[in-house]
Design a protein that fits this description.
4 copies of one chain form a homotetramer.
Chain A (H helix, E strand, L loop, with lengths): L15 E8 L16 H15 L4 H6 L6 E8 L8 E9 L5 E9 L5 E10 L13 H11 L4
Antiparallel strand pairs in A: 1-3, 2-5, 3-4, 4-5
């Protein structure tokens, strides 16, 4: 049993989930015949972008409000390799949090459903002065309310 | 004060250190004008390769002995951005460990010496049957002896 | 009217065509807000892989016969930029040729059908001794026969 | 004897030349054990950036004048592969031209001086309205004068 990446919060709604499928490219495979470990930030991003877009909290949604959400922390656990010809099934899981931050977990599976890679990223909200936001932007607060109300 | 990434070991020799300088490339910078977070595995690798090469434990040294040392875990903390025109000073720090694993810490600084990024990678030794090695290969045991004897 | 990249051959069958759709990734966009010119080899490859896979002449089909088909020439004409959020519609067009070579043309269009990028690649067949093949491997000759017979 | 990529101009001063050395990275090598063909735009860029920086016509010099110089055409001829452990010696050669364009040729050699790759890029000057510039910006005209006068 994997240890959870994020501490649970009492009364939190269920995490949001979205999956993106991506075929391994030849150029992503290293001389050992496996996807090079440094490609996975791009795989994680595909999952994150998919979930963000589905829920109205994508990069362009943030940018419209002059908010950026840069990555402050990233972690990866490599369990099994991915090979040329494989399809990566990238599941992004957004965990509930009431602060100005995004806690994403990722689970990548191969075509037979085996977990190949897990990890997480943490993003913090930055305003147009490059300062950490202490409060939540309106569009994001609305998103949290819809999430809590089970309307996503 | 940063919390250490690896637990200290009693009686361990001092970590090994090596630094690689790398100028930020235009292609590494994202639409926000900063090095995209997913480029840092490549930066870390430059540090790791430099230290490995200096000490006879590089990729080619391992390959010659039919040993691979794939990355099992990677972690990154993003503290400040790097910009186009910056030079990243990538310090790799190898921490003492007597198991068949490599515990690397990384500290990236900008031209004014500010820490921009820290992180670590963990590698485990795999033999030619893709099995985790339980013992240390000879060339690596020699490397540990020279390290302990202060001869590196 | 664009000048053709490859000279027509009398009596040649129609070119083969396949299209792959690819959403522009954040990491592919440069500080000027457009897809960096050096990403397009990957876009072309997505088109080439799609056509090759559909017709039994993909990388794995070649590898099974101990034949490699490395790129010997690549050319790109950049007409309009692609932006974050765009989908690239990558059309690969394989032109008839009876030698041990692959002449691929590429046309990338944006969501409104405008041509953004065109180009070509030339690949030559190499045997397991790294020598240029003077004759066609059987599986490839069969492929040419089916193409000529209109059975693809 | 290679056919020249650019037509000579009567009375033109000698081309400008600069070389950048770059060690092949593990991540750049494909499953066939050679640098993947699509990495070369980055190699060319290292040569171009080196020459531009030396002569005051780098990306930042253009940006300061609100001029961009996007790549309109790129061409590559792959002659020999580069391998892990190799150093690429990337020579950028700027050919004289009095229009608002940059004609760069590239020659990459390996450690034994063999030519592995050649190619070229063409850049056109764009003003802040994204229009092609019909005239030369002052700083660039000065650069041409110094070049013609042999003062570079």
């Amino acid at each position: 049993m994997r240890k959870p990446y994020f501490k649970g919060i009492d009364g939190a709604p269920e995490p949001l989930r979205a999956t993106f499928k991506r075929k391994v490219r030849f150029e992503e495979v290293d001389p050992l015949g496996i996807v090079w470990h440094g490609r996975y930030p791009s795989y994680f991003e595909d999952g994150r972008v998919t979930l963000g877009h589905l829920n109205g909290i994508g990069y362009l949604d943030f940018r419209e409000q002059n908010v950026a959400a840069p990555i402050k922390q990233m972690h990866m656990d490599y369990i099994k390799p991915l090979y040329y010809g494989d399809t990566a099934h990238i599941e992004a899981i957004l965990h509930w949090n009431e602060a100005a931050r995004l806690n994403y977990e990722f689970i990548i599976r191969n075509d037979t459903g085996e977990i190949t890679t897990t990890g997480y990223t943490v993003q913090l909200f930055i305003d147009s002065n490059q300062e950490l936001m202490m409060f939540l932007p309106d569009f994001y607060m609305n998103f949290l309310q819809r999430w809590k109300a089970g309307k996503l």
